[in-house]
Amino acid sequence: MGESTGLMESMKRLAGTVLAICQTRLELLTNEVEMEQLRIKQMLLYAGVALIFFGLTCVVLTAFIVVLFWNSGPLLVLGGIAVTYFVAGILAWNALRRLSREKSSLFSSSLAEFSKDREHLAAQDHSVVSSNNFVPRT
Fold first, then answer.
1. CA 39, 44, 46: angle at the middle one, nearest 5?
2. Tens digit of each residue's pLDDT (9 = 90 or more) over 24-81
3. What confidence tier does 110 reach under pLDDT thresholds 50, 70, 90?
4. What's the whole-model pTM score?
5. d(Cα 118, Cα 112) in Å, to the nearest integer?
6. How many CB atoms lie within 10 A of CB 133?
7. DSSP 35
8. How far from 85 is each of 21, 77, 78, 81, 117, CA to CA, in Å?
9. Which of 23, 44, 62, 75 gives 114 a disulfide partner, CB atoms 3.0 to 4.6 angstroms apart?
């Protein structure tokens, strides 16, 4: 029976080692995802710059439309365009705020489960060792 206990103990240590390796790999994957997030933030910065230039285009286009309708009520046209821009801006701002409040929990539950598995195996390993300290009766 001592051989089977030793084998079980070795298997549990092996499982603990495999789980530790998997946890390390997941942590590395998480770092890679964070690097990808930084790249995406950089892309968003360039997208913001592009949006500024598109905004300038909207200003020039607005001026063009106002001049085009100068004789039939330029203030009404300008007011309508301004309200349209304002509503679009509010909608975009609310969408951005909603997205910014959501925290990414990428792999956090998986890493927590691996930690639980390692702790569970370590606890079982200690209980097997302590229960195998057999003292023969005299």
1. 100
2. 888 888 888 888 888 899 989 998 999 999 989 989 988 888 888 889 888 888 888 8
3. low
4. 0.47
5. 10
6. 6
7. H
8. 53, 12, 11, 6, 54
9. 23
